[in-house]
Structures are given as C-alpha cells and as structure tokens.
Amino acid sequence: MTEPYDAIILGAGAAGLMGAARAGQRGKRVLVLEKSEKPGKKILISGGGRCNFTNIHAGPANYISANPHFAKSALARYTPRDFLELVEGYGIAWHEKTLGQLFCDGSAQQITDMLLAECAQGAVEVRCNADVTAVEHDAGRFAVMASGQPIIATSLVIATGGPSIPKMGATGYAYELARQFGLKVVEPRPALVPLTLGGEEVLFREISGVSAPVIATANKTSFAEAALFTHRGLSGPAILQVSSYWRPGDPVEIDFLPDGGEGWLLEKKRENPRATLKSLLREALPDRLADILVEKIGLETELGNAPDKALRAAEQRLSRWSFHPNGSEGFAKAEVTMGGISTAELSSKTMESKRIPGLYAIGEAVDVTGWLGGYNFQWAWASGVAAGDAL
Ligand code: FDA
C-alpha cells in the first residue's frame, strides 16, 4: 500500500491544474486524475485557440450565482493581475483584444504548458486516461478507484467542470459526486449559448452570417456587443452574454440603433426628407439586415412623406426589437454551464465543503458562472488558488 496523497484532484482542466500547482508548491503530495488522454483540452480550444485567459476588469459583478457574494473572496485574493504576472513570468506574449479581454499572441497551448510547468515545480503527478469508477469516504480519508486501483488521499477536489460540449469529453460527474456526498446542486443549464428562432422569426435565418453591433437585453440585463444571425437563430457575443440571463419563454430585446438617440428618425426627416428608412439603416447596418428590418416594419416611403407618428413607432421598434427564441442550442454548443454545486455547501475562502471536511469543489463545477470574455478562466484560476492554498 502506497503512502496516501495529501490531495487527489479530479480533472486536469483550468481549475484543477491551478489548484494542484499551488498545493504542490506548498509541499503537498498531489495527484491529478484526468479522464481524457491529455490535460487542459478546453484551454486548448478556448478563445479560438489563443485562450482568452482573463479579463482585466473581472470582478464579482461579472458572475452569476445563486449567491452573488460567494465569488468575492476568491476573486479578491487572486486577481487578473496575479494571473498576468504568472503569464509574463513565463515570457508568454499577450494582447488586449477588446473590453479588457486578454489573449495569448501565440497559442493556448502556452497556457496549458505553463500550468503543467507549475505543476511539475510542485512535483504534482498528473495521470491521464484515468477511469474513475468510485469514490469512497471513510475515517476522514477518500478512496478513489481509478483504472481498477484504489488510491487514498486526505483531501479530494472536484474539478471536473460542467457538461458543456460533451463531444469534448465534458461530463456532469461533479454533480454525481456532489449528490453522493449529499451536497445540493443548483440545476445546471447551458449558458453562453446561441439561441434558436422559430415561427415567423425564421425569416431572420435567411440572413445567416450577417452580424451587427447592437445592445441585447434579456431579463433587464444588457450587453453592447455584436449579434450574429445564424441558420438556427441568434448568436454572437451580445447574444451569448444575454443567453445566461434568458429563460425559456422570455423575449430578447435588441436595439439595432445603439448610436441613434431618441428622435433620431424625426431629425433625419427634417435634415433629408428624400431619404428612406432603408437608405438610413443601410448606413448603420449590413444591407441584408437593414432590408429585412424595413420589410418587417413596412415603411418603404420617403421620410418626408411619412407621418411623424409612424417614424416614432419605427424608431421604437428598431430600438426594442423583440425576438422570441424558442430554445437554445443546448449543452452541445454552450461555452459554459450555469448552476452546479451549490455555493451554500462551500466555504467561500477555501472552497471546502462545510459538511465534509477534506472535500473541495472548484471551477465550473461550482454554481459560479462568468460572462463571456475571460471571466470563466479567472474564476477557475481564483477558485483553484483558494483551494490549492488551503489543502
Ligand atoms: P474544465 O472543463 O476546464 O476541466 C475539467 C476537466 O475534468 C476536463 O479536463 C475533463 O476532461 C475532466 N473530467 C471530466 N469528468 C471527469 C471524470 N469523471 N474523471 C476525471 N476527469 C474528468 N473561458 C474563458 O474565460 N475564456 C475563453 O476564451 C473561453 N473559451 C472557451 C471556448 C469553448 C469552446 C468552451 C467550451 C469554453 C470556453 N471557456 C472560456 C470556458 C472555460 O473553458 C471553462 O469555464 C473552464 O475551462 C472551466 O475550467 P474547469 O477546470 O472548471 O473545467
């Protein structure tokens, strides 16, 4: 029988590798068990292969959770600047793309390599192709059956992420384990996910590939970014962002005139009565989108011939266009999973279970979900550090 590990971390993703490195470098004996053939697979495909590894503006307000205060402590103790310092320490070149989103200049592989180098510095053992079939807890120790072998540790960290993109090997194993240990799970659902259109709105599918800067709103939360029409409905950053706030049956409102203040159309009528709504919209939006919006509004005449009331109504419709998505593209296309292991079960300082000492949960497995733009990795790093420093 080998000496027990101080900690077994299930999942060699962003949170698991970060937590393992921190604990290992504090002298803890750490084993990471990863189901797939290689570590950090989601890191590798993230940010279009360049990994949007953090967001310089990340703060608690950028996260959704049943307890919006839960993430504060970990986020305050490990900040985007801390991660950036680590990245720079490895000489990884980076750039800010937009809205505080930081990406590698080169490849996401650099982030995985960096985390593995950090793990190696802490003499962490990372075992891939590990088939975890059972976990038992007895007399303050955890026994993990992996590939037919029992492995013992004094702590167990659930870092198996969420079920978004199952094609990549993502699983809901975290919830299975949580339930085994009697921890509450907030219902998981797809987030940062494209929404689908049906009924009369299928018309918009005809402009698949067209995108425009808009303000999208769902449940009183708005994002000013690009929206993209797809052959199934709506996507693009603005839509992915609001999808996390959208619930089936809710409308999504889109302001197609983010730069046109109130009274814009009447002003245009005075300035240029020969102009048409179509010609004006074509200046602000892609032609195919402008055409379809005008077709739906049914205002083809020159502005000078249109009653002010009709122009006011058209402007209002354009600034609050109500789409009624009939669903989302689900976990198959969701960038993250909302919900997960309830924060009520965990210490916000250490991520340790309040009821089962030695059991921890970090990263996407926990009911903390970030906006699009590097926020989810920042949560993975921060929660990984919180646990790694406490193990
Ligand atoms: P993560 O999913 O990274 O790791 C979990 C690990 O556990 C995986 O390696 C998995 O194989 C393993 N596992 C699962 N079940 C297991 C089991 N039973 N036993 C052992 N191991 C098991 N975020 C961001 O901030 N910036 C970005 O650019 C992107 N881009 C992006 C693109 C795409 C396409 C997706 C799908 C997601 C993103 N994200 C993102 C989100 C980000 O990838 C995600 O939030 C983090 O990877 C979560 O880190 P975790 O370590 O919690 O889970």
Question: What's this, in brief?
Answer:
This protein is of the alpha+beta class.
Provide a descriptive summary of the structure in words.
- Its cofactor is FAD.
- Residues 189-336 form the RsdA/BaiN/AoA(So)-like insert domain.
- Keywords: FAD, Flavoprotein, Oxidoreductase.
- The protein is of the alpha+beta class.
- The protein folds into 2 domains: 5-189 and 337-388, 3-Layer(bba) Sandwich (FAD/NAD(P)-binding domain), CATH 3.50.50; 195-328, Elongation Factor Tu (Ef-tu), domain 3.
- It has 12 helices and 21 strands.
- The chain has helices at residues 14-25, 41-45, 72-77, 80-89, 109-121, 173-180, 237-243, 264-271, 277-284, 287-297, 308-319, 375-388; strands at residues 5-10, 30-33, 52-55, 63-64, 94-96, 101-104, 125-127, 132-138, 141-146, 149-158, 185-191, 195-196, 211-218, 221-229, 233-235, 252-255, 321-323, 327-328, 336-341, 359-361, 369-370.
- Strands 1, 2, 7, 8, 9, 10 and 20 form a 7-stranded mixed beta sheet that branches. Strands 17-16-13-14-15-12-18 form a 7-stranded antiparallel beta sheet.
- β9 (141-146) and β10 (149-158) form a beta hairpin.
- α1 packs parallel to α5 (109-121), α1 (14-25) runs parallel beside α12 (375-388) and α9 packs antiparallel against α10 (287-297).
- It is elongated and about 85 Å long.
- Bound molecules: dihydroflavine-adenine dinucleotide.
- Dihydroflavine-adenine dinucleotide is lined by residues 10-16, 33-36, 41-42, 45-47, 51-52, 130, 132, 159-161, 164-165, 169-171, 173, 335-336, 363-365, 374-377, 380.
- The site of dihydroflavine-adenine dinucleotide has 39 residues, from α1, α2 and α12.
